[in-house]
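hi! just following up on the protien thing from before. the input was this:
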Amino acid sequence: MKLTADGGSTKVHWLLTDGSRRVREIFTPGMNPGVMECADMRELLTKHLLPQLGDDGGAIGCVEYYGAGCRGEACRRMEKLLHELFPEADSIIADSDMAGACHAVASDSAAIVCILGTGANSCLCNGGKIIDNVPPLGYILGDEGSGAWLGKRLVADILKELLPSDITAEFHAAYPYSYDELIRHIYRPAPDDGTPNSFLARFAPFLSAHIGCKEIENIVLDGFSMFFDRNVMLYFRRHDLPHTTGIYFVGSVAHNFREQLCKVAAQHGLKISGIRRSPLADPGN
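and the predicted 3d structure came back as:
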């Protein structure tokens, strides 16, 4: 059997397969081997993943982990940890979430593949191999259009009283944080708060629930426009790509705001070839 993971900072999606048969899907809390200690990741997987695998865990021959923060030394640390947890596995691979997305949606063609979830990333790939990658830069310097970016913009607009009063009231009712509490979660998080980017991404569902509000939709459109301007369009300029080049998106934000995403793509003279909630979801989902 094979265990494949799509690892994000908010959650990790695991898929256990036996040949072409999907055996089980498992969701565990988010991980980022680029910033988390091995001991913390081991504790998380031991508590949340191994019990859900049960006896099937001993029959896993191949483990592939594609995750946020997986690059260089972080990949080697993750592979070592997975070897400890699955000693019977013959093959263990850890690679970036971007590589996982390319294998999932564009394994046989040249395409631009983008991730819009808690964070954001993109690349130009051919046959599943990454050719060029505009650095995403994280939620402070980049990650335009991501759940963290959208949440950051929403919270800022709420605190600056830039949104309609009824929207502001509904926000405070849904998230009863004081000004000081919001600032602490974002700038001085306690150990149990989670990462600031994950905290900010929690507010994305509020945007989805109120997308009929013009000011709310404009936040989403602004984020996606910035993502195209500062990421997608760079590949066209760098490589002189035709505007018919395939563009694929994966991630919960891309999936939940697909109407706005397609609208922004059209404004740039482009058409999105496919949107998938997760690299491990059935095609079309």
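The two ends are 24 Å apart (CA to CA).
DSSP finds 13 helices and ten strands in the chain.
cheers
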